[in-house]
Backbone:
């Protein structure tokens, strides 16, 4: 079987490959983490935002959303049921993957990169304001709220929002397209490699994590849940890449995996 990418998808595929190669190259450059530190914080906001939204949508309430200087994050929330806990615990890693796939689809559908960047900035702003600031203020007397963590969350959220909106407003079309592609790749790769790291942590330590929450509710080992999340993430990425490569003309001969 021959594999063929639709003609009108090739510019987007080139963009994705360049963003991926740069991401991989940065892994081998000393101190390159500092270059992508803001994007790493962005992925953390998406991850923790997934937890927070899952809690609200399943009838729970969010006490706080915090992002730490080491790019880790934490959402404190009250779940309404065991099923809500399962959805809440799964939402973080899968949300990061889903957001990356969404960015791929938006690129493929030729949605203005400025609009995508502006929308991402607004999304981070809402997460910061609602869950990073207002929720801790409302629960300050009912829980253990870290003012230092809240301050960093609000500051980093504000900087990310300003940066994304500034890029949407002032970046050229070429660089705005690249930034959206780079964000997509970072969301996808970070989600998968974070799951790999979580698997190692769960196998070698007793540190509390989302997979342990799943194990406590279901009795299924934490490592098994991580493998399930990896499988779902890979499936979502595969679907996203297929949508990314398929011609938008809607005719059978344009499918990228035809014989």
Residues:
């Amino acid at each position: 079987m021959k594999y063929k990418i639709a003609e009108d998808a090739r510019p987007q595929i080139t963009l994705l490959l360049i963003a991926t190669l740069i991401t991989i190259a940065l892994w081998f450059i000393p101190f390159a983490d500092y270059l992508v530190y803001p994007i790493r914080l962005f992925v953390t906001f998406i991850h923790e935002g997934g937890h927070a939204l899952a809690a609200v949508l399943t009838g729970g309430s969010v006490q706080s959303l915090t992002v730490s200087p080491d790019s880790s994050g934490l959402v404190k929330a009250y779940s309404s049921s065991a099923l809500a806990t399962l959805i809440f615990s799964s939402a973080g890693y899968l949300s990061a993957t889903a957001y990356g796939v969404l960015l791929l689809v938006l690129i493929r559908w030729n949605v203005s990169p400025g609009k995508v960047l502006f929308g991402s900035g607004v999304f981070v702003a809402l997460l910061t304001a609602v869950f990073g600031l207002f929720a801790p203020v409302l629960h300050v007397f009912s829980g253990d709220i870290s003012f230092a963590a809240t301050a960093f969350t609000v500051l980093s959220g504000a900087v990310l929002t300003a940066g994304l909106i500034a890029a949407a407003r002032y970046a050229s079309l070429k660089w705005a397209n690249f930034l959206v592609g780079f964000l997509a790749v970072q969301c996808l790769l970070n989600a998968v490699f974070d799951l790999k790291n979580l698997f190692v942590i769960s196998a070698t330590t007793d540190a509390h994590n989302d997979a342990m929450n799943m194990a406590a509710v279901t009795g299924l080992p934490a490592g098994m849940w991580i493998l399930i999340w990896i499988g779902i993430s890979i499936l979502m990425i595969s679907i996203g890449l297929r949508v990314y490569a398929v011609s938008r003309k809607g005719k059978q001969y344009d499918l990228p995996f035809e014989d």
DSSP finds eight helices and two strands in the chain. Confidence is low (pLDDT under 50) at residues 249-259. Residues 14-247 form one domain. The first strand starts at residue 61 and ends at 67.
